[in-house]
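Inverse folding, one chain.
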């Protein structure tokens, strides 16, 4: 077995998600597979896996701290176990880890729900804060080009509150009884790296524009559909909407 295959096999043994054969696609004969199997059953290997898993769980817990802190300990532990078992917790980029983890949690929450609101709030805040580090407002004249393609900002987001925001956040963070979930959002917040304070309330026309940008669209088409140029420009220069390069 080539040395590179040895390194790959040992790395996979430590980090492979549950349910996957860590030695798949490697050119190994029977004796090599038997040797690696003995390694996987050794105390040293189990210790290494335990350390790696502990590191992954700790990293994930920090990446989604606010959202995870509102769940009972058993639920929090189950979510982290499922995340790590699926291969999570290993990213070298903390922002990417947090974003992926919060998507993972959001997909397991009722929609709408106050818990989902908090999850998306933490995610949107992380995105906007991370993007603000090197954000530079683009020239709004760029969108005058008829074929200038736009999409949702990668460091932006919206958060819908299905109730009075202060009451929701207080109840979640202090483990108090949650208020009823309203049928329609009572407040929708925009988040973006160029917004003052990273967020503000969204108007209905801005929300309509955000919902339209589930796919890349050129600026002329947006205007022909009735989206206001001033809304497009306002979201563009604050990073809520961005050029689809």
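Residues assigned per position:
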């Amino acid at each position: 077995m080539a040395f590179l295959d040895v390194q790959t096999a040992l790395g996979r043994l430590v980090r492979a998600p549950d349910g996957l054969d860590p030695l798949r696609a490697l050119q190994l004969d029977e004796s090599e597979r038997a040797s690696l199997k003995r390694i996987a059953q050794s105390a040293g290997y189990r210790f290494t896996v335990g350390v790696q898993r502990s590191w992954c769980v700790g990293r994930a817990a920090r990446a989604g701290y606010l959202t995870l802190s509102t769940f009972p300990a058993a639920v929090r532990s189950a979510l982290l176990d499922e995340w790590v078992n699926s291969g999570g917790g290993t990213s070298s980029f903390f922002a990417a880890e947090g974003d992926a983890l919060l998507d993972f949690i959001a997909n397991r929450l009722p929609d709408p729900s106050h818990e989902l609101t908090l999850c998306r709030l933490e995610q949107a805040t992380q995105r906007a804060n991370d993007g603000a580090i090197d954000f530079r407002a683009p020239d709004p004249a760029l969108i005058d080009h008829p074929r200038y393609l736009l999409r949702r900002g990668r460091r932006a987001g919206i958060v819908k509150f299905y109730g009075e925001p202060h009451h929701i956040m207080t109840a979640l963070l202090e483990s108090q009884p949650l208020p009823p979930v309203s049928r329609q959002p009572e407040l929708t917040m925009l988040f973006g790296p160029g917004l003052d304070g990273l967020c503000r309330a969204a108007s209905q026309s801005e929300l309509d524009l955000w919902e339209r940008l589930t796919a890349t669209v050129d600026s002329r088409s947006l205007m022909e559909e009735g989206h206001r140029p001033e809304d497009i420009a306002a979201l563009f220069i604050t990073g809520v909407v961005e050029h689809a390069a």
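The chain has eleven helices and six strands. Strands lie at 149-152, 157-161, 187-191, 199-201, 217-218, 241-243.
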